[in-house]
Protein: Large ribosomal subunit protein uL1
Amino acid sequence: MTKITKKQKLVAEKVDNEKLYSFDEALKILREFGEMTKLDETVEIAMNLGVDPRHADQMVRGVVSLPSGTGKDVKVAVFARGDNAEKALAAGADKVGAEDLMEDMQNGNLDYDRVIASPDMMGVVGRLGKVLGPKGLMPNPKLGTVTPNVEQAVKDAKGGQVEFRVEKMGIIHSGLGKMSFKDEDIKTNFKAFTDAIVKAKPSGAKGKYVRKVSLTSSMGPGLKIDIAEVEGA
Structure:
């Protein structure tokens, strides 16, 4: 007979796959699982949206600042020269450069969470489309990653701003902070993120927009959240 682990037993006792949990209920259950792992796990959200991102008028993409931060050390690369390069470094950028940075990335050094560029550098950055594009790292004016104010863009990236982009199955997901955060800080981030997604509803979306929301942690179960909490965000 197969031995049931403590985690499996807790799932059986605590998780109802048919139930729609409040955010507070779900976080409480995830904390119980977190006590078993002894790790500072990431609290994550997944949202199933009624969109088909293959159509341009149904793409959901943007940025949102999580008020409580992400708890993650965000690695930022900046394409800039002169005064802008100095400001980017002072703001905390991990790597700043021009053609040298381009060549570094072409050689496969792409360990960054955000790539920012000043407008005058787009001639250089444009050559990296096939390298940065598939990883979702290509600087984009609509996301604030092509900007004359690279200093502020670096501060935003380091301070809790996250990008979101719907995947081909209509799913969008993000980290909301660490288990070591206070409950109210994770909830504030949850509300900021879900509010941003609701506001980003594209013109081509038909019918029900937010169809399913779930909360999980790095090693915890997925718990369905009552959509009313999101639509009232």
Remarks:
- The chain has two domains: 6-69+161-229, 76-158.
- The first strand starts at residue 42 and ends at 49.
- Residues 66 and 189 are 5 Å apart (CA to CA).
- The mean pLDDT is 91.
